[in-house]
Amino acid sequence: MDFESLIFDIDGTLWDSRALVAEGYNRQLRAEGLDHLCTDAEALKPLFGLVMEDLADRLFAEIPAPERYELTLRCMKTENEYLHEAPCRIGYPGVRETLEQLRRRHRLFIVSNSNCGYPELCMEKLGIGQLFEGHLCFGDTGTPKGETIRTLMARHHISSACYIGDTQGDADAAKAAGIPFIWAAYGFGTPDAWDARLERFEDLVKEFKL
After folding, report:
1. Alpha carbon distances (Å) from 158 to 61, 68, 96, 161
2. What is the 3-state secondary structure (H, E, C) of the chain?
3. What is the C-alpha separation between 75 and 69, in angstroms, rounded?
């Protein structure tokens, strides 16, 4: 496969932040006396990749809307603060080195279903910000991921691309955007179909024959 640009998901693709995200959420929940709602990495695994409202509906179903959405936003704020404090040694092996090789022949981008600030945090913590030309997330666009991918491609005049992610939602987004999907099989999900499969992040080097 040969593409001008490669567009990456974050969670389950570039890093595994589940344990740190859970602790960030739990700090806020404990501060509000909601200890019974505390979560952990395994409980979050099937929820990564959901937009904020869907995540809140699953995680805090016992709390009526819109209160659960407000709670989730507070949890996300505390989560981001905690991630800023933490070392975040949670990148998958070889991420930075592989991206450095990929960048020799491809433009690199990120599209995430996260809120604003999360893509920047990931790039900062992994030391990869200088390798990416641009990024968009749900917090920027408020649109489904497939549409966000199309917006990014139009904004950066991308002529050909693939999307690299780990869940069914990522596969659906790539299909909606009309581009191939590369499945990060080491991540969190098992999509129904994919155009190529990675057992490790470093396999991208072989996939693109670098």
Report:
1. 40, 38, 23, 7
2. CCCCEEEECCECCCECCHHHHHHHHHHHHHHCCCHHHCCCHHHHHHHCCCCHHHHHHHHCCCCCCCHHHHHHHHHHHHHHHHHHHCCCCCECCCHHHHHHHHCCCCEEEEEECCCCCHHHHHHHHHCCHHHCCEEEEHHHHCCCHHHHHHHHHHHCCCCCEEEEECCHHHHHHHHHHCCCEEEECCCCCCCCCCCEEECCCCHHHHHCCC
3. 10
pTM over 0.90: yes
Predicted pLDDT of residue 210? 55
The parts of the chain modelled with pLDDT lower than 50 are none
pLDDT score of 207: 87
pLDDT at 9 (0 to 100): 98
User: Do 51 and 149 belong together in one domain?
Assistant: no
- Contact, 11 vs 48, CB < 8 A? yes
Q: Per-residue pLDDT tens for 69-111?
A: 999 999 999 999 999 998 888 999 999 999 999 999 999 999 9
Q: Is there a single domain that holds both residue 47 and residue 145?
A: no
Residue at a domain's end among 85, 113, 134: 85
CB 9 within 8 A of CB 85: no
Interstrand relation of 107-112 and 134-137 (parallel, antiparallel or unpaired): parallel
Domain count, the chain: 2
